[in-house]
Amino acid sequence: TVRHSDFMGSVATLTIDPGVEVRFEPGTGLYIGYKAGHPYYHSYYGAL
To answer: Could you tell me if residue 40 is inside a domain?
Structure first.
């Protein structure tokens, strides 16, 4: 379980081992990267 909210200016590392499925609770997701004007470049919901 990862319960963390990280915003610009901070760096977080999440390592997911092969064969591991990551699931998200309703209303939550994983946001990766930063692109000018768009703080979250990739968004994942449901499962990864």
So the answer is: yes
Q: Which residues contact 26 (CB under 8 A, 6 or more apart)?
A: none
> Do the domain assignments include residue 41?
yes
Question: Cα(13)–Cα(34) distance, rounded to whole angstroms?
Answer: 15
| Beta bridge pairs of residue 30 | 44
**Do 30 and 48 touch, CB atoms closer than 8 A?**
yes
pLDDT computed for residue 19 by the predictor? 92
pLDDT for 14 equals 76
| Domain extent at residue 43 | 21-48
Residues lower than pLDDT 70 in the chain: 1-12, 31-48
The pLDDT of residue 3 is: 56
